[in-house]
Amino acid sequence: MNAGGDSNGFKIGGFGKKVINYDPPVHTVKNCLAANNGAHGFYSNHQPGQSATWTHNTSYNNKKGNFTMVECASISNTTDIPGTREILHYNLSYKNNVLDEANLPSENNTDNYWNEDTENISADNFQSLDASQLTKDRGPDGALPDITFMKLTNNSKFNMLGCFN
């Protein structure tokens, strides 16, 4: 595939690191899949404050990291800090950095793959790691194709996580 833009998967928030005089919106990112991006899979993009609630997302093999939560200190201070205000629940990450630039309070960061036994995840947990399935044609009715890429196997202990649960 040819990359376009800046090669991020889901780039949420951010204001070009400029001072603003209003509270930025908080987004919801739910049931999304980011794979094989040249930069970040899920990226809070220097949001001054919380950029999103990230729930039931799956991220795979993104070059600069799967979940990157860097924030600006405030709406009047564009200094980058590890994310402290993001909310992440039931997310799944495989291959490459799992969670970067985050200093989240425990109540904001629960039931994610990285909160579980991360030593036991392997290719065997997935039905397929064949990303070419993402380029399959839509159905005649416009429906997304039925794929097995990044879907967990029935016996995976991580079945409650990610976008295909």
TrEMBL record:
Principal localisation: secreted
One of the record's GO cellular component terms: extracellular region
Named cofactor requirement(s): Ca(2+)
Listed SUPFAM superfamilies: Pectin lyase-like
Classification via Pfam families: Pel9A-like_beta_helix
Subcellular location(s) of the protein: Secreted
UniProt keyword terms in alphabetical order: Calcium, Lyase, Metal-binding, Secreted, Signal
Entry keyword annotation includes Transmembrane: no
Superkingdom, natural source: Bacteria
GO MF annotation list: carbon-oxygen lyase activity, acting on polysaccharides; metal ion binding
InterPro entries: Pectin_lyas_fold (IPR012334), Pectin_lyase_fold/virulence (IPR011050), Pel9A-like_beta_helix (IPR053868), Polysaccharide_Lyase_9 (IPR052052)
Residue intervals passing through the bilayer: none
Domain Pel9A-like right handed beta-helix region: 4-94
Family: Belongs to the polysaccharide lyase 9 family.
Record's protein name: Pel9A-like right handed beta-helix region domain-containing protein
Species the sequence originates in: Clostridium saccharobutylicum
